[in-house]
Amino acid sequence: MGTSLKDHVAVIGVGCIKFGDNFDQGYEDMAAEAAYAAFHDARIAPEEIDAAWLGTYSPAQGHGKAAVSLGDALRLYNKPISRVENFCATGTDAFRHAVLAVASGMYDTALVLGVEKYKDRPGRGLAREGVHPYITTAQPLRACSPWPPPAICTSLA
Asked: Is a pLDDT exceeding 50 seen at residue 102?
C-alpha cells in the first residue's frame, strides 16, 4: 500500500478576496489580489513558485481560453501555467493537478488560482461563451464558485 499524499504535499498559504460582483476590479485585479494574499500567507515571493494552475471557465477578454490571463496578471513569465476547466469542479480539479505535480516531484512549489468575472462581459450571461456539446436544448450555463481559494502547495520532501 502506498503512502498518502498528505505525507508529501502541504498547503503553505491561502488567499481569498471578497466574493461578489466586484465592479471596481477587473479579472486580472481579482486574480492578483487573491494570489498575492496567498503569497503573503505562505511568506514566499511569486518568483519562488515553479508552476501554476488556473481554474477558470471564462478568462479575461482578449486572452482566449488560455492561461495567459494569469501569467499577465502576476507577471509569471517563463513559468509553466496550465488552465483547467471542469464545470463546477474546476477549482478542485486545478488543485488536484497541482498536488499531483508536486507529489510526483516535478515541482517543489505550485500556485493554484480560481477566478471568474462574468458581469464585465459584453452580451448577456454565459450563452455567448458557448453551450456544452451534450446539452441538446438551448440553456445558459450556470456560474459556479471558484473553490477552493488560491493555494500554494509545496513538497514536504
From this structure: yes
